[in-house]
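thought: user wants a sequence for this fold. calling inverse folding tool.
action: design(structure=
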């Protein structure tokens, strides 16, 4: 496969995924040296094209057919019956988003697309499908047969890894172990090398205010986090920490560290999205292919109105184009 094929799922049909996909492709065309492949329902795509009055040449997926720099392939999944009702939680739309993702993942596993960009899904709609999944990363892990996959946020030069993800905040301290942190330090350092960083530097964020202030405001830094950092340093890994969370992300943005290990979901999300909400891109690492994603939800409140910003989708597609070759 000489050309680069980037798969893009539209996510939940009731949300803004289809809209921002079409708008992003309109911004990014002409497609020099790459070909978009959109996974969704052609009826949903046509409805949105009509709303946006966009002129994009959508063709059924067939890499042997003729195409030009303005062509977009689509894979019609026929998962939605009737016109879309925007902004609602619905089992049919949750199942449709599952079908789009499964189809795209299978083509990625077969080498038909080089990377996957995913539009936003709705967790409540996914839950109604009784599939057992409420997020796309878990679905992709299952489809690819991998035990773990890791999230990295990319916001300009700031890179953030997440030790834990969708768990209640009150359970974070009890979920931390020295062995776990050490294992993830090693894994994240290997990821950074894949990005072409020969001697990466990783900072581990602290859990408590002021990194526990020598045990005055919590003992996790002394008993759990710092021992993992010391063990990693003994293995000649350039790891620092625990670094107070109120400064570590700024220091990484300024170039002192190549990446930060965030200990829990909102610790890293708040930093990245405050820095640049619309340009923060999520990368899923550890799959047989690179997956990037917008870092926002379905925005049901504005879905179907034609006013959603495609900026995050543009950045997600750019990231897939830039980094897919590092993760073959």
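)
observation: tool returned 328 residues.
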């Amino acid at each position: 496969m000489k050309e680069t094929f980037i798969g893009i799922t539209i996510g939940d049909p009731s949300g803004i995924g289809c809209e921002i996909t079409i708008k992003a492709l309109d911004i990014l065309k002409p497609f020099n040296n790459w070909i978009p492949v959109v996974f969704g329902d052609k009826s949903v795509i046509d409805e949105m094209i009509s709303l946006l009055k966009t002129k994009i040449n959508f063709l059924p997926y067939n890499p042997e057919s003729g195409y030009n720099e303005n062509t977009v392939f689509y894979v019609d999944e026929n998962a939605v019956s009737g016109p879309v009702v925007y902004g609602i939680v619905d089992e049919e739309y949750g199942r449709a988003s599952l079908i789009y993702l499964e189809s795209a993942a299978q083509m990625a596993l077969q080498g038909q697309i080089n990377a996957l960009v995913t539009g936003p899904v709705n967790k409540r709609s996914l839950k109604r499908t009784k599939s057992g999944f409420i997020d796309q990363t878990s679905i992709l892990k299952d489809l690819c047969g991998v035990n773990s996959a890791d999230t990295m946020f990319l916001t300009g030069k700031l890179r953030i890894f997440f030790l834990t993800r969708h768990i209640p905040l009150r359970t974070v301290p009890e979920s931390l172990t020295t062995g776990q942190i050490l294992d993830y330090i090693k894994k994240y350092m290997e990821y950074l090398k894949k990005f072409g960083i020969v001697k990466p530097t990783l900072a581990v964020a602290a859990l408590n205010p002021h990194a526990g202030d020598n045990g005055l405001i919590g003992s996790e830094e002394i008993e759990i986090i710092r021992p993992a950092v010391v063990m990693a340093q003994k293995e000649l890994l350039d790891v620092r920490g625990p670094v107070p969370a109120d400064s570590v992300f700024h220091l990484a943005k300024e170039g002192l560290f190549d990446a930060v290990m965030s200990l829990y979901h909102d610790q890293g999300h708040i930093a990245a999205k405050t820095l640049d909400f619309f340009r923060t891109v999520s990368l899923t690492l550890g799959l047989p292919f690179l997956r990037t994603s917008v870092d926002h939800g379905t925005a049901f409140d504005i879905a179907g109105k034609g006013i959603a910003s495609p900026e995050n989708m543009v950045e997600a597609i750019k990231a897939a184009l830039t980094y897919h070759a590092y993760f073959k």
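thought: summarizing for user.
answer: Here is the designed sequence. The chain has two domains: 4-148+288-327, 157-270.
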